[in-house]
Amino acid sequence: MKRVIYAGSEFVTGDDIASALLYCSQALAEAGVAETVSVPTREQDGSIGRIMVLIGPASQIVARDVEVDGEELVDTTAVARLSAIQRRLRPVATFDSGTPDDNNWDTDL
Prior knowledge:
The chain is an alpha+beta fold. It has one domain. It is built from two helices and five strands; from the N terminus they run E-E-H-E-E-E-H.
């Protein structure tokens, strides 16, 4: 689990969620935009809560390991949403690695 420190507040969340939040925040900062995201948290009584976080170019977020009672907080939907923001801001180019047909090459150079 990770304790996330942001804007004078702290919350505890799962490792994958914290990583996705940090990578999303980095992508938003690089793009010069901000976005509000919802992050699941582990409350002091062990229940699961949610926090709304505004992240963007000026975000200063720290995540550190923390020991808590109970299981790791896992929320694949939250991680997918944060990862989707990152992918939208950092599109990945693809290419065809197949061998081109030799008949298509222009040999009159």
